[in-house]
Amino acid sequence: MDTTQRSAPTLETERLLLRAFRKEDFRPYHAILCEPAVHEHFGPDPMGQEECWRRIAATLGMWQLVGFGGWVVVRKSDNRLIGTVALFNAWRDLKPEFGDDPEMGWIFATEVHGQGLAGEACRLVLEWADKHLSDKTIWAIIAPANDPSIRLAGKLGFSLYGETDYHEEPTLVLKRAPRG
User: Fold this and answer.
1) Residues near 166 by Cβ (< 8 Å), separated by ≥ 6?
2) Do 122 and 84 touch, CB atoms closer than 8 A?
C-alpha cells in the first residue's frame, strides 16, 4: 500500500471533479445527507450537523492515518457538490472484520440519481485504488433495500460476500477482490 498519500488527489472525468473536502463543503454535504431518499438507507433520521462535521474531519484524517480517504464529487457544468466517494477504515463491529482493508462508500444527491454520475465517480476512485491499493480487498456494506447501490456495486466488480446485522439492521456485505 502506498501510504505516502496525505490528502485526496484531484481526479477528473469530462463531467466530474473529485477533490479533497473544504470547509465550505459542510453545508452542501449536510443538505445531501438530509435528503429523505439519501438518509433512508443509513438511518431512520437525517444526520445531524455534528455528526456530518465529524464525518468530514474523519474523511480528511483518514488520508493522514492510512494513505486513502474520501473525495467530494463536483459537477463541472455548474461547480455544484453532488456527492462523495470514499475509501476508509471504519473498524465496524461486524463480521467479517475488514481489518486494514478499505471499505468503499458513496453518497449522491437525489437530483443526480439515475444519471450515471455515481458510477463515473466510483470507477475513477477504483482506478486510483487499483494503482495504489492493488493488494487490498475492498469491502462495502449496503442496506438490502438500496437496490440502486446494490446494482452499482455489481457494475463496479463487487460480489455478495454475505449478510449480517449491523446496528440491529440487516446489512449486505460485499467485496471486490484485489487487482494486484
Assistant:
1) 92, 93, 94, 141
2) no
Distance separating alpha carbons of residues 113 and 103, to the nearest angstrom: 22
Distance CA 180, CA 173 (A): 22
Question: Could you give the CA distance from residue 40 to residue 34 in angstroms, rounded to a whole number?
Answer: 9
Nearest to 172 by CA among 132, 134, 150, 141: 141
3-state secondary structure of 55: helix
**pTM summary value:** 0.94
The three-class DSSP label of residue 98 is: coil
Question: One-letter amino acid identity for 61?
Answer: G
SS3 79: coil
Which residues, including other chains, have CB under 8 Å from residue 123's CB and lie 6 or more apart? 156
For the chain, the residue count is 180
57-79 residue pLDDT tens: 999 999 999 999 999 999 999 99
